[in-house]
Amino acid sequence: PTASNRLLKSPEKDELSLSSGIYIYNSQKE
After folding, report:
1. How far is it, in rounded angstroms, from Cα 30 to Cα 17?
2. How far apart are CA 21 and CA 11, in angstroms?
3. Distance in angstroms (rounded) separating the CA atoms of residues 19 and 26
4. I need a labelling partner for 29 at 20 to 30 A (CA). Which of 1, 4, 12, 22 fits?
5. What's the pLDDT at 8?
6. Residue 30 and residue 16: Cα distance in Å, rounded?
7. DSSP notation for 1-30
8. pLDDT of 1-30, one tens digit each?
């Protein structure tokens, strides 16, 4: 899950990363 952490760490730099971060967050929530 290191990649997911990186995406969540710098979401502003990449909008795509932000979407991925949200997807991961939703996946963990479930």
Report:
1. 20
2. 8
3. 11
4. 12
5. 57
6. 22
7. -HHHHHHHHSTTT-HHHHHHHHHHHHHHH-
8. 555 555 555 545 556 666 677 777 667 766
Q: Is the dihedral of CA 23, 26, 28, 30 positive or negative?
A: negative
> How many whole angstroms separate alpha carbon 14 and alpha carbon 20?
10
Q: How far is CA 29 from the centre of its chain?
A: 13
Please name the residue that has the structure tokens 């997911």: 4
Residues 13/29, Cβ–Cβ less than 8 Å = no
Contact 11, 24 (CB under 8 A): no
Question: Dihedral (C-alpha) 18, 22, 25, 26: value to the nearest 10 degrees?
Answer: -170
